[in-house]
Design goal:
Blueprint (H helix, E strand, L loop, with lengths): L2 E10 L2 E11 L4 E5 L6 H9 L6 E6 L2 E2 L5 H6 L2 E4 L11 H9 L17 H9 L15 H13 L6 E5 L7 H16 L8 E6 L11 E6 L2 E6 L1 H5 L2 H8 L10
Parallel strand pairs: 3-8, 3-9, 6-7, 7-8
Antiparallel strand pairs: 1-2, 1-4, 4-5, 9-10
Helix pairs in contact: 3-4, 3-5, 4-5
This protein binds adenosine-5'-diphosphate (ADP) and magnesium ion.
Length: about 260
């Protein structure tokens, strides 16, 4: 169940957003895709999740070519994503947001049954992301960090999620909350009772959320992978320091 991205190219008219990117993510592995603004992180992501057609290249999941599949078809194969800006249903409660996803096999009719259908799976997911005490609160009233957690629970509610794609999971959060959320992301990579670990790929634009979280880091600059390795390896790479981190950059203290 690995993700293989081979020679991914995505151009928007004259803009060469992604220019030949190749990498893999294995189950149980948490991989960070980092790089400056405009490097092509979100575009790479959207190509894997199915929001953009590729200009060239291949995306394989579990050995199957998926680049021509619609997002819903990718979801059926266990590929779930979250967005840079959290996307939740504001008028529903926290629990109903997750139930909407757990009840998808019942179709749109599920919308009218949210309060009468079994909520066990949805509650377990809320417990996993630390939101169970807010199950009955309206999503609209959640602080932003809560919405990011809710979005994670919704992504996990899909059919047997094996690949989790997170576009800046901690964007917009203060340092402490960001560290807590990244801790949760890391734990999700392994802790899936009764099934193999998930493959997690997340984008980030600073190294804070990488040390202590990512097993491996891909550094994307100008649409190509400029370096890859462990967080320590990429942080000490002279080219990465020169082109992205800055000469005076220092490893975060907690790492
Ligand atoms: P990142 O997520 O690393 O900040 P993006 O993938 O959002 O970078 O953007 C990479 C480049 O592609 C940027 O130059 C951006 O302006 C351009 N781009 C992204 N999406 C589109 C689009 N839908 N249409 C045209 N250009 C785009
Ligand atoms: Mg982005």
């Amino acid at each position: 169940m690995s993700l293989q991205v081979q020679g991914l190219v995505k151009h928007f008219d004259g803009v060469k957003a992604v220019n030949g990117v190749t990498f893999t993510v294995e189950p149980g592995e948490c991989v960070a895709l980092i790089g400056p603004n405009g490097a092509g992180k979100s575009t790479t992501f959207a190509c894997i999740a199915g929001q953009h057609p590729l200009t060239a290249g291949q995306v394989l999941w579990n050995g199957e070519r998926i680049e021509a599949l619609r997002p819903a078809q990718r979801l059926q194969r266990g590929i779930a994503r979250t967005f840079q800006v959290a996307q939740t249903f504001e008028a529903l409660t926290v629990l109903q947001n997750v139930q909407l996803l757990t009840q998808i096999p019942r179709g749109l009719a599920a919308y009218n049954l949210l309060d009468s259908c079994d909520s066990g799976q949805a509650r377990a997911l809320l417990e996993q992301v630390g939101l169970h005490h807010l199950a009955d609160a309206q999503a609209q009233g959640l602080p932003y960090g809560g919405k990011k957690r809710l979005e994670l629970a919704m992504a996990l509610a899909g059919h047997d999620t094996g690949l989790l794609l997170l576009d800046e999971p901690a964007a917009g959060l203060a340092a402490e909350e960001r560290a807590q959320l990244m801790e949760l992301v890391k734990s999700l990579t392994q802790r899936q009772a009764g099934r193999a670990g998930m493959a997690v790929l997340y984008t980030e634009h600073n190294m804070d959320a990488v040390f202590g979280v990512a097993d491996r880091v891909l550094v994307l600059i100008d649409g190509v992978i400029a370096a890859q390795g462990t967080p320590d390896e990429v942080a000490s790479d002279p080219a990465v320091r020169q082109r992205y981190l800055g000469q005076w950059w220092e490893k975060p203290l907690h790492a």
